[in-house]
Inverse folding.
């Protein structure tokens, strides 16, 4: 739906964007921690085939993170750049982080398609690197952009700025 179909964006909705960004990051942090635990548990068991839920969880996490960053790059960041051009250097750094994260996700997904006890350690190292980069990225983004997102006047009420928000995050945000 367009903003015209829904009417103007309410001030409360605009102020909630920064909180929504933080909630999305918190969800991604928790899922990444859970994924790391699952891989460590699999490596510790030494069974030849990783459980299907591990592969499904990794795929879902990687897809959600990719949608989040793609949505920021194509919708959220351009909206910020238009209203707050002084943020362009920060936005460019964050876009560069997104490219780095995408490369790690590709390597991780390759490792996980052939995950075995023999390559569990490289997968864990990739996850450790991803965790470190994402934590730094999320903190920087939250410090620099939350206030701007809260002040943002989205052009369309239905515009999604952070990717598809998992149900758990949507439920928390509505409380």
């Amino acid at each position: 739906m367009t903003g015209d179909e829904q009417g103007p964006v309410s001030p409360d909705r605009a102020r909630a964007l920064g909180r929504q960004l933080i909630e999305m990051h918190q969800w991604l942090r928790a899922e990444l921690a859970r994924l790391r635990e699952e891989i460590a548990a699999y490596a510790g068991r030494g069974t030849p085939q990783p459980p299907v839920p591990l592969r499904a969880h990794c795929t879902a996490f990687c897809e959600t993170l990719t949608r989040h960053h793609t949505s920021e790059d194509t919708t959220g960041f351009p909206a910020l750049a238009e209203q707050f051009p002084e943020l362009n250097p920060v936005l460019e750094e964050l876009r560069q982080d997104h490219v780095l994260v995408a490369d790690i996700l590709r390597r991780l997904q390759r490792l996980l398609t052939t995950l075995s006890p023999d390559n569990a350690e490289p997968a864990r190292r990739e996850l450790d690197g991803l965790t470190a980069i994402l934590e730094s990225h999320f903190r920087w983004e939250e410090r620099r952009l939350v206030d701007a997102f809260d002040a943002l006047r989205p052009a369309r009420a239905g515009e999604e700025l952070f990717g598809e928000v998992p149900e758990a995050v949507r439920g928390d945000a509505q409380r």
Observations:
- The chain has one domain: 9-170.
- The chain is about 80% helix and 0% strand.
